[in-house]
Design brief:
By secondary structure, the chain is α+β, with helices and mostly antiparallel strands. It is built from 9 helices and 22 strands. The chain is globular and about 65 Å long.
């Protein structure tokens, strides 16, 4: 054991609601959409005169930004920089650790752990309203294991090691995808063969088993919806169905590398299946007609980008099969297609392998953390 005691989260941190009162000309606005999985994504500076009523809170280094809306969307971040003239939305909780009791990063890892997020999501779903929301009072009522600060630091270092491996894989994947996209664009732009999108690619649909039939759900078949789009691969989905559920819906079991496009809700997101999975009716599955699935993926990105540009100034609220049927794309020559695949196939295999590795690492992180915090596993016994 590591001398762990258990305390309400509200006793080891506080919710900060300090209002920004400076008169600087430029500020940076941080909304819930600007934080994700530990990172602050947006650093855009805007005139102070644009400051709206919902952007009021200030925050500082080592604070935790945590969205009140849909915890399962994982809109949270650890502030590891000095946020001079940064303003947070009132929909972002600013949580500040009491450093004499708990390490800020230790608290952050507790709050981002999958079991904590799941508990908060359940609490959010008990509320009525458009969006499942939580307040700091629900966070404060959680119970956190609190070992000594020295033990906390070792746990933080262990978690950081796993996080660094995940981040490294993500950076490698980002670089590989950029290289492949640049190569495809250079070959695409020099093509002089225009064809209909549907001459090369078949558009298939999906469906949802009856939601009230329990035997159809929570099986071992991944069930893709617009919420599940990966970058670019999806390995796990929020919902799963059984074999019986698959036989009672309008979706086939799509193989690895099937291209999915979100057609309703969040429209125009493109990804690929990393494991065999079924799909709901809010998406399309795109399969090549004697066209390699990697080419299908990049052709689809081009087509969707054109559809978005056509909808400029209008509401882009759906993609229909008719949209794809009327879309024209440039077809790579056989030689260029072969050259592209020779380079891109091993790249995307590495991307998929890194995604699989990151899933393993994140699963290890989320299962290991509670055991380290509670003292069930001695921190001195951990080797990564």
């Amino acid at each position: 054991m590591n001398g762990t005691i258990y305390m309400p989260v509200g006793e080891v941190c506080s919710s900060i609601s300090d209002t920004y009162r400076e008169k600087k000309n430029m500020v940076t606005l941080i909304n819930t959409s600007d934080v994700l999985e530990g990172r602050v994504l947006n650093h855009e500076r805007v005139p102070n005169s644009n400051l709206k009523g919902q952007f009021k809170k200030t925050f500082q280094r080592d604070d935790i930004l945590y969205s009140e809306i849909r915890p399962q969307n994982r809109r949270f971040a650890y502030v590891d920089f000095s946020p001079i003239d940064y303003i947070a939305s009132t929909k972002l909780m600013v949580i500040r650790a009491k450093k004499d009791v708990v390490s800020p990063k230790y608290l952050y890892y507790f709050l981002k752990n999958s079991s904590t997020v799941a508990e908060l999501q359940l609490l959010a779903e008990t509320r009525s309203g458009t969006f499942p929301q939580i307040t700091f009072s629900e966070v404060a009522n959680l119970t956190i294991p609190v070992p000594s600060l020295a033990v906390q630091e070792v746990i933080v270092q262990t978690m950081q090691c796993l996080e660094d491996k995940i981040t490294c894989n993500e950076q490698i994947n980002d670089n590989l995808q950029q290289q492949a996209a640049a190569l495809f664009s250079s070959l695409y732009d020099r093509s002089n063969t225009e064809v209909r999108f549907t001459d090369l690619i078949q558009i298939l649909g999906g469906g949802t088993p009856k939601t009230g039939e329990n035997t159809y759900w929570n099986g071992n078949i991944a069930f893709f919806t617009p919420k599940d789009v990966g970058i670019p691969y999806t390995l796990i989905t929020e919902k799963t169905i059984s074999k019986e559920g698959l036989s009672h819906c309008n979706s086939r079991l799509y193989p690895v590398n099937t291209v999915f496009v979100t057609a309703r809700g969040t429209v125009g997101k493109v990804g690929m299946s990393g494991v065999p999975m079924a799909m709901n009716q809010s998406c399309y599955a795109l399969v090549g007609k004697e066209t390699h699935q990697l080419l299908v993926y990049f052709y689809t990105l081009k087509a969707v980008d054109r559809l978005k540009h056509k909808a400029s100034g209008a509401v882009f609220d759906a993609i229909t099969t008719r949209d794809f049927e009327s879309e024209q794309i440039m077809k790579l020559s056989d030689d260029d297609a072969t050259a592209f695949l020779r380079v891109a196939e091993p790249m995307f295999q590495e991307v998929l392998n890194n995604n699989i590795e990151n899933l393993r690492l994140s699963t290890l992180r989320d299962s290991l953390l509670p055991k380290l915090m509670s003292g069930e596993i001695d921190v001195s016994a951990v080797q990564l």
